Every structure is written in structure tokens, then in C-alpha cells.
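CORE FACILITY INTAKE
Project code: CF-77B
Contact: R.S. (postdoc)
Sample description: multi-component assembly, two entities in total
Requested service: structural model of the whole complex
Turnaround: standard
Below are the sequence entries exactly as provided by the requester. Do not edit them.
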Amino acid sequence: MDNHQFITFKIDDNLMGIEIVNVQEINSVLDITPVQQAPDYVLGLINLRGSTVTVFDLGIRLGLNQRKITNESKNIILKKETVGLLVDQIGDVVEARQNEIQPPPANIKGIKDKFVAGIIRLQDDLLILLSAEKILQYEGA
Amino acid sequence: MNENYDVDIITEFIQESRDHLESIEPDLLQMEQDGSSVSKDVINSVFRAIHSIKGASGFLGFEALAELSHVMENILMKIRDGEMMPDPDKIDALLQGFDKARDMIEDVHNSNAMPYKHELDKLNAILEGRPKQVPDTKKTEKSSPTENNIENDEILNEFAKDCLKQLQIIKQAIEDIKQTDIQLKEVHDHVNVISKKMNEIKTGSKFFSLDPIFHLSDTLQTLFNALGEGDLYLNSKIYNPINEIIDKMEEVFKNIYTCNDISFDKEIETLNALLHDETSISEPDQSQTISTSIDTPEPPKVEKSKPQETIRVNVDLIDRMMNLAGELVLNRNQLRQEVEDIAFESTKLTSIIQNVDSVTSEIQEKIMQMRMQPIGRLLNKFTRIVRDLSRQLSKEVELKIEGKDVELDKTILEGLSDPLTHLIRNSMDHGIETPDEREKKGKPRKGELRIKTFHEGGQVNIIVKDDGRGINATKVMEKAITNGIIPADRANLMSEMEKINLILLPGMSTADEISDISGRGVGMDVVKTNIEALGGYIELESNLDKGTSIQIRLPLTLAIMPSLIIGVSGKRFAVPQVNVQELILIHAKEISQKIEKIGEAEVLRLREKILPLVSLSDVLGIERTYTQAISEERLPDQRMHLVDRRDTSETSGHPETEKRIENQPPPDANERRVHMNRRNSWRSDINVVVSKLGTQIFGLMVDELFDNQEIVVKPLLNHIKDCKCFAGATIMGDGKVAMILDIMGIAEASNLRFAEINSEEERRKREEETRLKADLEKAESILLFNNAFEEYFALPLDRISRLELIASDSIYTSGNRNYVNYRDEGLPLIYLENLIPIRPFPEKLREFYLIIPKTGDHSFGIVVSQILDSVVIAVNLRKDATTPRGLLGTAFIDGEFTMFLNTDELISMIQETYATG
């Protein structure tokens, strides 16, 4: 039970991770229908095998810049609610023990604090762990 | 001890009992209404229902429920036997009893702990109120309440004792059948009793796992059913073995604990032999009979007349299938689109696709049908509510229900219960007056409440109508102003109907006093919200002292929505068909005539009405684009308003041309012409979706109209639910997601000023009226006549002194002048064709008319061939340089070109001819 697995991905130069148990799949369905007057981080809806999935621009959601869609762009589809997170690039799966996860320092690189669940210090990088739950949470208009 | 039983059996029991209770209530009300003349069938139906509940609950150990139903059964028995009249008090007690029974069934595991003394006492009081003997006192012990934590043995003993009693009754009934000498009707009744008793034994033995008894009683029941249907006759050949078997059963029940060691195989064999020997009835094979009738203590009569077989299916399963069907439709659409091109070449593929198409549609339709339920299920409960409220409020109300068979999706039906109840209560409480009050108003003492359901245009309409005091529109309006819901100046512009419909807004409750039943200020707005949540609309109409009519329109189902697909700036959206009233195409060249501006708002003139216009792209914040006529590329449209003329700004230079000038060599002549013509290109045509929102309509301007489609509604994530303009999303045939528009949200978002538009409309109407009135004042009386028959002439009546009929032979000619003898004087005649360039007077007329105009000193007579009519009309005379002398002018009257004579000129002309001639 001690081991956690994280899917890692890039938002600009930041290496981030989401616990794998929260992820349904990763795809590159990027035919997004915009939703007018939705919050800025809502890119729109995609058709995922007959269901609609709401895609968030994870950059804006976290308080960073808007994503640019490239060949490497991917959607991380979360479980529970049908939400996809648009990220720049998908990385490896990182495994970590509970004791390797450190509490988040205040204010990392302009990312809104509440989305950060913790950090893992890798050999040459810092993995920022995001809270899927907080990302899904709607703050209201 | 009830938890010892199989969960399935208890679930089954609850479902069965619910069904029974549902059927009981209308029957009871029917009994009350019909009094002593009530049909036996109705009583029997209630009786059977409560009996089944009693039986099953007794065995399952729900003693409280069993006791309650037992007492009710006894009362019903007395009513059936004519020992009691089903008067309102008794029905009251019974209804309350059934309500309690329903509570118990809904929470069956705690039912024994529920207080039910009050209901029981009331029922017992009724029962004991009669000195006559209770026919089945021998049964009362059966389901008397026992301790909750009773030992299994004790229950079993109880059961055995009970079965012995049932067997006694059965034996008696068999005896009776023998006596009645095969009179089918009575035999039937007796057999019913036997079958029921047997069923109780059967059900009980199943629960106690007394398999031999279960099988035996089951076979016996089958046999008796055959008897009841007249397939078998009870002769001694059958009678004797049955009696023996029943005796044997008695033995077993007396020593219940040895029961499982006994085998009834031989007896069952005998019975089966009897069954098949004597008859040709084809019973289903044994195992099937068991599986279908184990947990269904239904009376045999039902089995007999079973028209269709039904099974119970979990609603979740149907919901899941519904979703799957939706996805299937989606995939079908995608498939169709994908193979469309290839399919042309292969007829085989075409036919396969068509098959897939029709099968998919049918699957979807059938699954939808599975969810459909008749609205009668819901409406029936209002009979009870109306009855109870009438008693409570001392009002006399008759409820009429029409269209019980109309079917609605289960979800909608469920969501409809609360709002409809609210409306009924409102009508009862505020709408319908007390009998005395009604009498004073000259209405019948008994009020009428009508619920009518019908299909119309793919929607279900429900109308709740009362003949009560109606809604006072002014009062509602004042209240709305006082409560700050609408500003006074706007309210004054509202139509009567709009004022009444204000009652649907939050914070409106006009009841003078708050009552138990309704009037807490959270009424109609909740109804409205509920109805709208179901995708429906509600609208009120009311006449003071005449009554109120509330119309609700609902979609048939929620999951699939017939929609119109539209396009704006290359993006597609779905508009629910319920919101679409009509589609209007405005040609580019008509735009300036049909669309105008009132204040800042653009409006469309549509058949005497003014529709506020909303540009969908503006509301949604999408850049308005247009397709460039030559290059077909989309360019941003810079016009603020469609009526803004492009060509006028052309000279002053608008952003586009300026840009072009900056970036490119000056546009060649051709391009400029195209640009100028943009207003007249078909690409600049405007499509208007006339959208309706209850009483209000507005025009939604879109770029393109596509087809109507049945779309599958996908819910929105809460993050985008705040965008009020969307009701959901759907996936189109090409796999792309399209948003479903929420017309109400769009109306709100675009801040439509209906009141302002309405006042403009009013103003125009008034203007039109004053214009008409002025015209009327200008109108004069004129006489219409012919000279040549095909030419029409007119003279104002006030210019005419006399009109005479003259015989042709009374004309005298002197020189070039013609006279008639008029009052012993020679009256000179004017032939019009001599003075004005017109066709000549018809020849050979034996009679003609003379018009003698009012003139000064000289009298003349104008010769005319026939007088047509005299009319009062406002004439717009046309006179210009080409109008010949002698005419006032010309006009069209009743579609005929008519010349108005100028008598003064004519006279001077004739005098001139005299002078010259």
C-alpha cells in the first residue's frame, strides 16, 4: 500500500504528476468543440467513444499560461468525472513510496497552491504532484 | 424473524403490495361514489388485493400489517355482503388504514414498530358498530399480532393451525359446490375461495420449506383453477380423491413437525391424472408453474384473464439500455456518414446500412417504450387528493380526468407528481369557491376540476382547469410591483396574460391568507422550476370568476430530444424542437424593410407583430462572420447592426477596405463590385429561428439552418453549467460535439426587453387605429354609376340634387342639344362622352338615369346608363396633369378604376359648347 504510481507530464518546463489511480486513459483526441462563456480553463468538449468529455487547459487551470496544441499534446482523461486535462507532453510512470512524497512548499512557480498535493525530488528534477480531486472541484462562478 | 426470509421474497412482496395498494385506492373511491349500487367487481377487487397483502404479510411475520389488513378485510367483507354501506366515514377509515399499510410496506422491516393503533381503533369501531355476526370470526385469530422475536416453532405452529382453518373452509366450499348443482357462476365463486385458501397454504409452506405440502397445494390449486374455468366438473370421480387428500393434509398439519418425512408424490400423481384425464387444458409444465407462481399470491381470476405476460425489470437496467441505445444511434449515424460515398457503388452495402438503420431505430424506440408509463398512474391519485381536500375545505368539487392513457417517460412522470399536486391544491384552495359563494355567483354549487392530457406535435399537453374564481391580473401585477419583482412602468405595458403569468415568478403568493394547503409564497415558481427542469413549459390563462386554466407542455422523453441543427460562424448548435415556432428566411435585399431598430434593439416585423431579434453569435460572444462572395472564406463582420448600410459607409471607407488598401494594391473594379453587392448576395440572407418561450417569442438570428435530428442529450459538467445558454451537449453524426442551446438562457443572457418591444407594438397599433379613424372621418358618401357599362364613374352624394329614371323616347332634340321634359320644363342633357374622352353611352337603352347635380342658376341632367351603388368610403383621389378637364380625379374603388366627375367643370364645359356651337 505504500507504493504510489504517478503518470508524469510536462506543462511548459514543469514536470508534474497525477496519481495513476485517478487516470482512466491518455489519448490525443483533440477535436475540441469550444463552449462559449465557460470558465477560461475549459477548452471545450470532445467525443470519447460516444461520451462527451470536458477538456481543461491544465495550464490555465493551474494559474499558468494557455497551452498551445502541438503534435505532442495529450489529454489525460480522469476517472470519476469525465474530464480531460490537456498537457504538453507525456512522460514516464514514476513510482514512489509514501515517505518519498514531501509536502508542497509554498508557491511553486506560480502554480495555485491548492492544486499541489506534494512533491517528489527526483535525481535531476522536481516532480510536482497534482491533486486530481482539487482540479475537478468546481469553485462556482 | 422476518430477516430469516429470502430478501428476494420480501422485495417481491413489497412490489406486489404496492401494485395492490395502487389499485385499491381508486376502487375505494369508486365504492364511495356509487354507494350501495357499487358493483361487486369493484369490492371484490379491493377485497382480493387486501387479502393478498394480509396473507403474505402474516406469513412473512409482519404482524402489524397483517392485523391492520385483516380488520380492513373484514369491513370489506361486510360491505360486500351488504351488511354495511360504503359511506364516506367508512371509506375515510379505510383510506387511512391503507395509507398506514402503505407506510408499513414502504418500510416493511420496521413495520411492526410503527404505531397503527389509531387507524386500527377507527376500523374496529366501524366493524363493531354493527351487531351482526362477522362471518369469518374463525379467522380472526390467524394473524393476531405476536411477539416480534418469536420462536420459529411458534410461527410454524401458528401456520399449521391456520392451514387447518383454511382446509376447513375449503372443505365447506367443496361441499357447497356439490350442493349448488353445477351452477357455473356460483361454482366459480366457491372455487375462488378455495383457490385463495390453497394459495395461502402454498405460499406459507414455501416459506417454511415444507416442500411436500407446497407441491401438493400447488397441484391442488391448479386443479381448482381448472374447475373454476369450467374446464373440469366436480363429479364424484374428482371429489372423492380430493377429499381424501385434504383429509390427509389435515393430518399433516396436526403433526406439522413430521411433515417433511411425508411424501405426497402419490397424491400429486393422482391429481395430475385427474387433471389430464378429464380435460384437454394444456397446463404449462410443472416446473414452470412453480417458478411463476411461487411468490405471487395472486388470485386465480387474474391468471385466467391475463392478457399479456409481464416481467419486472430493474429500472437501472432499462436506463443502462437506454444509454446504450443512444450510443448505438450515435454510432449508426457515424457509420452512415462514413460509408455514404462507398455505399453508392455497392448496393449490398446500401441495403445492409438500411437494415442497421431501421433495426437501430426500432431498438431505440422499443426501449423508450419500455420506460413509458400511462399518466393515469399519476392522475389516479388526484381523485383521492381532491376528495380529501373537498372534505377538509367543505367544498364540493368534481374531478374529471381525460386522457389517462397518454404515456410519458418514467422520469418525467415522477417529476410531474409534485408540481401537479401543487396545482391541484391551489385550485382546490384558492380557485374553487365554497358552495354558498358559488351559488351567489350563479354557478353550480359543485365546482369542476378537469385534468386533460393529450398529444400534440410530439409533445404531451396537460391542462389543469377549474371553474373557480380565477386570478385577478391587476392584483398579481400590484403584488409584483410591491414585491419589487418588476418595475411599475414595465408592468403597465403588460398584457393581461403576461400579468397573470407573473404569478410564476419567485416571491409571488397572492393568497390573502395562508392556509394549510397552499399559500406560503413558495408556490408557483417551484412548479415552474420543476416543469422546466423536465424540459417543459407552463402557462396560465385565467378569467375572473370564470376559472383558471393551466397548460403544461412536456417532451415525451428526456434522453432523446428532437432538435433543429443550426450553424453560426461555422459552428453547429442544436435548438430543441419544442422551442422552435417557425423558421424565417430574410433575403439580403429585404433586410432593410423587414428589420428595424427600436432603441438599441433590432426587431423583425412579422405579420403585425414585432419580434425582438437576438444574434446568436453576439449572445455567445462568437465573432459574427460572413462568407466572402468570391473566395468563400469567412471574414469577420464588422457591422454593429444588420440594418446598418454597408454601401453608404463604402465611400467613407470602413475597416475592411482600409485594411485592404494598406496591405494590398487597390482592389480592382471587379472585387469592389462584389463587395458592394454583398448586401444582395444570398450569403447575406438571414435565417431567423422564431423561438418560443411560453407566451413570449423572439427571433434568433443564425447563419445556417441544417436538418432536424433526434439527438441524444449528454449532460454538462458542473464547470460549464453556469453557462446558462446551454442545456447540454450532443454528438453529431460526424462524431463532433455540438452544444444544445437553452433558449431560456439565451433570452435571459441577451437581456431581451420584451416590455419595450411590446410598448412599441402597442404604440404602432394605436397609431394605426388613429389613422384608420381619421380616414373614416374623411370618408364621404359617393354614388357609383356607369356610362358605358365597362367604365365606372362616381359623384359625391352631396353634389347631387336629384336622381331620375327616364324613358329613352322622352328625349327631345333641338339642334345639337338634347332635352327631356322635366317638371314641365326642358332640361338640357349632358352626354359625358361629348365632354370627356370616354366610351360612348350604350345605344338602344329603353330607360336611363338622369343625375341632376346641385348647381347655381342652371339645371342640367347628366345621362348615365345605370346606377351601381352608393358607398361610404375614404377616397384618395389622384389628379395630375393628364387628368382630363371635367374630372375631380381618379381612384380605385372595389378594385375598379373610377372617374370622379367635377360637376362645376362639366357645366361650364357644356355652356362653352353651347356658346361655340
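Facility notes:
- Chain A touches chain B at residues 31, 33-39, 42, 44-47, 50-52, 54, 56, 81-83, 138, 140-141 (CB under 8 Å).
- The first helix of chain A runs from residue 58 to 62.
Invoice: internal transfer
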